[in-house]
TrEMBL record:
<keyword id="KW-0812">Transmembrane</keyword>
<feature type="transmembrane region" description="Helical">
    <location>
        <begin position="413"/>
        <end position="434"/>
    </location>
</feature>
<dbReference type="InterPro" id="IPR045070">
    <property type="entry name" value="MATE_MepA-like"/>
</dbReference>
<feature type="transmembrane region" description="Helical">
    <location>
        <begin position="388"/>
        <end position="407"/>
    </location>
</feature>
<dbReference type="GO" id="GO:0005886">
    <property type="term" value="C:plasma membrane"/>
</dbReference>
<feature type="transmembrane region" description="Helical">
    <location>
        <begin position="189"/>
        <end position="214"/>
    </location>
</feature>
<dbReference type="Pfam" id="PF01554">
    <property type="entry name" value="MatE"/>
</dbReference>
<dbReference type="GO" id="GO:0046677">
    <property type="term" value="P:response to antibiotic"/>
</dbReference>
<feature type="transmembrane region" description="Helical">
    <location>
        <begin position="135"/>
        <end position="156"/>
    </location>
</feature>
<protein>
    <recommendedName>
        <fullName>Multidrug export protein MepA</fullName>
    </recommendedName>
</protein>
<feature type="transmembrane region" description="Helical">
    <location>
        <begin position="357"/>
        <end position="376"/>
    </location>
</feature>
<keyword id="KW-0813">Transport</keyword>
<feature type="transmembrane region" description="Helical">
    <location>
        <begin position="163"/>
        <end position="183"/>
    </location>
</feature>
<keyword id="KW-1133">Transmembrane helix</keyword>
<keyword id="KW-0046">Antibiotic resistance</keyword>
<feature type="transmembrane region" description="Helical">
    <location>
        <begin position="235"/>
        <end position="261"/>
    </location>
</feature>
<feature type="transmembrane region" description="Helical">
    <location>
        <begin position="92"/>
        <end position="115"/>
    </location>
</feature>
Length: 462
């Protein structure tokens, strides 16, 4: 991609160019996740949903690795391109792909050796353990392709090919839905069928994305002498917050599982499974809005065009918060209908999920704002600050909320923990965001003054 497009074209137009295919891909991927829950609910009932919820952190682990490497690579590539360091861009890409493949292989071997202890650590009881193991095996065996696919999605999108990423996501998601129907409903393979469908679809998506390397318009390539310690540390630092957010999401699911089973009946765990899968859809869409602005912010930051960086941040916030408001409005109007998609035929589960959805998603606008701020800090290579806020937001405040709120509000306190954490995080992060913008403006004024001082015209005075 010609970097001048990112440095000169109107921000709103560029953002939409990245946003539309990104969100279409995210929505399609989210639909397949909902379909997965629907088919598991229809084919295996509440026990299947409970087992799925316990197994969910494995997806968190894979996506955390993929986001760590992918976002770190894409951010470092974009900043390097903005600064005119094209060779560094290729080195970062090569290191990222080697790291992703290696991490996937290590994860597969580790999980295969310790699958049962891992499942029990996630919260699997003796009654649910067989179902959890059945679901996890196909996912783990093909996890390397899932991780590489995550990395390629982010990197290829940043390399100005969001349409290809959208195509891979749409095709794999539709394939997953078709295979879910065949394996779970028609052939009655149960949880194994749902898991196998997901694993196969990930392989198809990975293969589709790998084809980008043979496109003439690609602007990334492998290089032999790729190792550069400084670039590697930048890549790891730039992606750490995304990985931490995903990891904390998995930890939160485990903590919620324990908290719910400690104060309520197992059916509340099935209700939480419905809520988490709807939340996965919502957060996926919000991440799509945030990821779409990353290459724009990073490239302009590398070129020190801070006014364009701030304009990009403002547009991303406007779009994302607006969508979050609309989304929560839909939830307020139709909570029963949304919960009923996954709790069909079970009135008790339906009522519990409907009530939980209303409370849980009161955090949606706060989550949207915090997500944009986190990606903004990553995009300008403020990885440590972004990681700090992510730990506070995604783990520490959730833990504090689970320790305090349920003792006051019972199960409602569990549903409100995310709102509690997101609200406090926003209050903490706003002064830092404001300070960063002021520093950028000060640097811009200093550079303008410097340019004026060295461009004084010759007046012919001896």
């Amino acid at each position: 991609m010609d970097k001048n497009i990112l440095l000169q074209q109107r921000i709103s137009r560029m953002y939409l160019r990245f946003l539309i295919p990104t969100v279409i891909g995210m929505v399609t991927q989210s639909v397949y996740c909902l379909a997965d829950v629907y088919f598991i609910s229809a084919g295996t009932g509440a026990n299947g949903l409970a087992a799925l919820n316990i197994a969910m952190p494995i997806f968190t682990i894979m996506s955390a690795i993929g986001l760590w490497v992918g976002v770190g690579c894409a951010t470092t590539m974009s900043v390097s391109e903005g600064a005119g360091c094209i060779e560094d861009k290729h080195k970062v890409f090569t290191m990222a792909m080697i790291l992703a493949a290696g991490a996937g292989i290590v994860l597969t071997l580790g999980e295969c050796l310790f699958l049962e202890p891992f499942s029990r650590m996630l919260g699997a009881t003796d009654a649910l353990l067989p179902d959890v193991l059945t679901y996890l095996r196909p996912i783990i065996l093909l996890s390397t392709f899932n991780i590489i696919g995550w990395v390629l999605q982010i990197v290829i999108r940043a390399d100005n090919a969001p349409g290809l990423v959208m195509g891979a996501t749409v095709v794999s998601s539709l394939l997953n839905i078709v295979l879910d129907y065949l394996f779970v409903i028609v052939w009655r393979w149960g949880l194994f069928g749902a898991s196998f469908a997901t694993a196969l679809s990930s392989c198809v998506s990975c293969a589709w994305l790998c084809s980008y390397y043979f496109h003439r318009e690609r602007n990334i390539r492998f290089v032999k002498n790729c190792w550069n310690g400084k670039l590697f540390r930048r890549m790891i630092g730039n992606g750490a917050a995304s990985a931490m957010l995903e990891t904390s999401a998995g930890i939160v699911i485990i903590l919620f599982n324990y908290a719910i089973l400690n104060i309520a009946a197992p059916i509340y765990l099935a209700a939480y499974s419905v809520i988490t899968n709807i939340a996965y859809v919502g957060k996926g869409i919000l991440n799509g809005f945030a990821q779409a602005v990353q290459p724009i912010i990073s490239t302009n930051h590398g070129a020190k065009l801070f006014h364009r960086v701030h304009h990009s941040l403002g547009i991303a916030c406007l779009y994302t918060v607006s969508v979050a408001l609309i989304g929560y409005g839909i939830i307020l109007l139709f909570p029963g209908q949304i919960a009923g998609i996954f709790a069909k035929g079970d009135q008790t589960l339906l009522k519990l999920a409907e009530h939980g959805i209303l409370l849980y998603f009161s955090s949606f606008v706060l989550t949207a704002t915090n997500t944009i701020f986190m990606y903004y800090l990553q995009s300008i290579e403020k990885g440590r600050l972004s990681t700090l806020f992510t730990i506070i937001r995604g783990f520490l405040l959730i833990l504090v909320g689970l320790m305090i709120l349920p003792s006051w509000l019972g199960i409602d306190g569990v549903w409100l923990c995310v709102t509690f954490a997101e609200g406090i995080t926003l209050l903490i992060s706003l002064p830092f965001i404001y300070k960063q913008i002021r520093q950028d403006k000060k640097r811009l004024l200093e550079e303008e003054d410097h340019e004026k001082s060295i461009c004084v015209p010759d007046l012919g005075i001896e």
